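It is worth pausing here to work through a concrete case rather than discussing structure prediction in the abstract. The textbook approach is simple: state the sequence, then state the predicted structure, then interpret. We follow exactly that order.
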Amino acid sequence: MHYLLSTVVLSLSLVAMTTGANAQEATRTVKDKAEMSAAVMSAFSKESCTLIDETPRDGYRAGHLAMSFRLRCGVEEASASAVLKELQSKEGFFVERVALYPVSNTVATGPSVDVRFVAIAPTGVER
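Step two, the predicted structure:
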């Protein structure tokens, strides 16, 4: 009985993970790097974030535009995570390789976090 129950729970977990992965697929197409960068900066500008680096990731995924972003935000990690979720839900980008690093040696008087991620969206132009 214990074996059967654990098998059912494992199966349901795998279905939930697979469903979640499909739900996170990018839903917005972008025509170029400038459009993606503008959308990312628009989302993060609400949290007083500064762009440190943005790098195109050519060949990251076929038929998609991918860019790595690194920003410094004067907020708690939870607020930065909320902006990343907004980037997925409102902007329709797929976000992966997320890393949030609290910054302690800053001149700022409040919390600060270094945000790194890859944003991915299907391209609106054929290559």
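Step three, interpretation. Helices lie at 2-23, 33-44, 77-89. Residues 27-122 form a domain with the Alpha-Beta Plaits fold (CATH 3.30.70.60).
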